[in-house]
Amino acid sequence: MRASDKAYEALRTDIVEWRLRPGTVLGEVEQAERLGVSRTPLREALARLSADGLAVQLRGRGTVVSDVSFEHVDDLFALRRALEVESARIAATQGDPAIFASLRDRFLEARSSISGQAANRESYYLLAAELDQCIDEAVNNRYIEQSLRSLRVHLARVRRLAQDDPQRLATSASEHAAIAEAIAAQNPQIAVAATQLHLHHSLEHIKNHAGSERDTSK
Question: Is the pTM of this model over 0.85?
Answer without folding.
Answer: no
